[in-house]
């Protein structure tokens, strides 16, 4: 389909990805002090683009007020990276939606750290559904029921949710990887920021943690033009249809799933996780 670029079996948005950007990603040189936030789309990427620079710089709000999030914490696989890579100062923070097997050689030889954010796939589906309505560079999602089928079959950006999650949880990166859930962040952001800062060996005072948490709240990010995607032209992202920072809650799936859809969705997801004797650290309900 025209909206998609197929890359080694993975569907990517043509608007932001091309052969050169994927080549650039494969040749990208990771540094030992790089941090990369790994997410399946709609799982908390933008949130990490806000949190990470603040944790790494000790809570200085300058970058989050002056640099748009996609330049502050760029995507490894997107075209924008090549243009701004020279301006990034270490320790650098990046994001990627790549499954583990797509990471470039230098990632494996470096000591770059990974923060993997996972979100309840039912909420990921709902968030993605609205995102497809507002992002004009993506195909119309059709009905929620149709979109659910596409999601479960992996005919969506970055493939199947289960493949993505399994790839990173089975990656055996030892103490280079830290797992956190969107739900934990939503429940207690200061504690989540403390755990992230401990993982990155950044010692932050309680005051700084709370300052970061305040800045990274849904309301504060929604009001920040550097973070809310309002600077993207309307022809690409139409916030009148649905804002990028839409609801920012857990469990919105309950407002969208019928009981039949819930059974269908959970049986497919659970089966795929069980196939490899794989269990998640938290319940998907
Ligand atoms: P909803 O559509 O459920 O509101 P991504 O950045 O990976 O594309 O994910 C987008 C989702 O993260 C959206 O979910 C968005 O609202 C949510 N999000 C972004 N920043 C957030 C924050 N500070 N607090 C809670 N949710 C946030």
From TrEMBL:
Keywords: Transferase. SUPFAM superfamilies: P-loop containing nucleoside triphosphate hydrolases. The keyword Transport does not apply. Residues 32-274 form the Sulfotransferase domain. Pfam families: Sulfotransfer_1. Transmembrane segments: none annotated. It is an enzyme of class 2 (transferase). The keyword DNA repair does not apply. Its EC number is 2.8.2.-. Gene3D superfamilies: P-loop containing nucleotide triphosphate hydrolases. PANTHER family: SULFOTRANSFERASE SULT (PTHR11783). Belongs to the sulfotransferase 1 family. This is Sulfotransferase. It comes from Characodon lateralis. The lineage of its organism: Eukaryota, Metazoa, Chordata, Craniata, Vertebrata.
